[in-house]
Amino acid sequence: MKLFTMICLFLAFATINLQAQELEKAEIDPKYKQEVEQILKNPKVKNAMGFIKANDNVTVQDNITLNEIPAPPFGEDDRSLAFAEMMKKLGVDSIWIDEEGNALALRKGTKRDRTVVLDAHLDTVFPEGTDVKVRVNKDTLFAPGIGDDTRGLSMVLAVLRTLNAYKIKTEADVLFVGTVGEEGLGDLRGVKYLFSEDGPKIDSWISIDGGELGRVNNKGLGSLRYRVVYKGPGGHSWGAFGLANPHHAAAAGIRHFVEAADKFTSYGARTSYNVGRMGGGTSVNSIPFSSWMEIDMRSHSPARLDSIANIMKEAMQKGLEEQNEIRRRGRPLQLEIEEIGNRPSGELSADLPLIQRAMAVSEYFGVEPRLTRGSTNANIPISKGIPAVTIGRGGTGGWGHSLLEYWVNQEGYKGVQNALLILLAESGLSD
C-alpha cells in the first residue's frame, strides 16, 4: 500500500509539473471586471445565480442520466438524441441533429447579429460494452466518462434551464451544442463539421471540458496521428523462415524513430511522440502477414509537428529497407503510412474580449485565472482565429480516461455559474 501511495504521489507531482509548464498569467483589463459587476447587478442574474445553486441536484441527476447512455467513439447517436430531447423539453427556438451527429439547439437573441456557442462533447474514450453505470458515494460520482465530458453536458443543460427560468435575454443568438468525435480517433469531427461550409456561422465558441474553476484555455495543442502498417506474405515460423517479418520491420522502425525523435524533442518548442497501439500476427509460431501501430505526435508549433512527422516516416522507411535487405526468400515487405488524425494548433491573444471576460469571471469567484494550452474542441476555431475558449467544469475529479474516473461535487454549482456569466458577457445581456 505504501508503494502504491508513493507511485500515486509521484504521478500527481509529475502531472502538476507538466501542467505548470503550460500555465500563463495575464493581466485583466479593468473594464471587463466592471462588465461582470454590471451583469451581476441585474436582478434576473442575481436570482439566476441562486437558482443554479438551489437546483444543483437536478444538474447532478442530468449528469448521471446522460452518463448511463453509452457514447463510445463513433457510437454517440443514442446520447445525442437524448441530449437533444432534454434541451427541447427545457425550451428552445429550434433544435436539430446535423449530418455529423451533433445535437444543436438555438435560442434566439434580441439583435441576432452574432452567434455564440456553448459546447460540451458527447463522446467518451470507452469502447462499446463498457459498464457506465454511475456509483454515488455522498458527493462523489464514480463512472467512466462521468467528468469527461458528461459533466460538461449537464452544465450546458443547467445554463439553458437557468436562462429560461428567469427569461434572461441575450443580444446574440446562443447555440447550445453537444458535439461528437472529440476524443481519440474522432479527430474533432463534430466541431470540424460545424466550422465547415455546411455548418452554421459561429462568431464565438465556449467549450466546457476538463479542469477546475479558473481554467481558461486559449491555446490549441496540435497533434498528428498516423497508422503505420508493414505487410508481407507471412508463413510458418520454421517452414517459411527467411521471409521478411513485418514485426521485425516495425521494431526496427520504432528504434530508428525513438533515436531520432529523442534528439529532436530535446530542444525547441515542446514536442512529444508516442507509439500508443500495436497489433498483428496470428500465432506464436507464424511469421505475421502484417504488423500495425498507431502513433501520436504533438507540439505547440505546426512546423515542429510537420518535422517530427517526417522523422517518423523516414524511420519507418529505414525499418522496411533493413528487413527487406536481410530476407532470404519471398517477396519484399510493403509499408503503408496513413494519417488518421490532425488537430491544428494555434493561439489566441489574452487581450481578446472573450478571453478577458473568462478571466474576469474567474477572478469574481476568487480564483486566479490560468491561461492554458490543450487539445479540445476549441482547437478548430482557435486555429481559424475565431474567439474561442475552453473552461473547466468545476468541482474536482480524477482518473480521467480510466475505468476509475470520478467527479466530486465540491461546490460544483460554481462551474455552472461561471459558464453562465461568461456566456452572458460574450453574448450580451439584453435589457
Give the SSE map:
Blueprint: H1 2-22, H2 30-41, H3 43-54, H4 56-67, H5 77-90, E1 94-97, E2 103-107, E3 115-121, E4 135-137, E5 140-142, H6 150-165, E6 173-179, H7 189-194, E7 204-208, E8 215-220, E9 222-231, E10 235-236, H8 246-264, E11 271-280, E12 286-287, E13 290-299, H9 302-326, E14 334-343, E15 346-347, H10 353-364, E16 370-374, H11 379-383, E17 388-391, E18 396-398, E19 406-408, H12 413-427
Parallel strand pairs: 3-6, 3-7, 7-17, 8-16
Antiparallel strand pairs: 1-2, 2-6, 4-5, 5-19, 8-15, 8-17, 9-13, 9-14, 10-12, 11-13, 18-19
Oligomer kind: single chain
**Overall 3D shape:** elongated
CATH level 1 name of the largest domain: Alpha Beta
Separation of the first and last Cα atoms: 59 Å
Give helix % range. 25-40%
Number of domains: 2
Alpha plus pi helix count: 12
> Structural class per helix/strand content?
alpha+beta
Number of strands: 19
Whole-number mean pLDDT: 94
- Which CATH architecture of the largest domain is right? 3-Layer(aba) Sandwich
- Low-confidence segments, given as residue ranges, are 1-21
CATH topology of the largest domain: Aminopeptidase
Beta-strand fraction estimate: 15-25%
**Can you summarize the main beta sheet?**
9 strands, mixed
CATH 4th-level superfamily of the largest domain: Zn peptidases
Q: Specify Rg, calculated over alpha carbons.
A: 24 Å
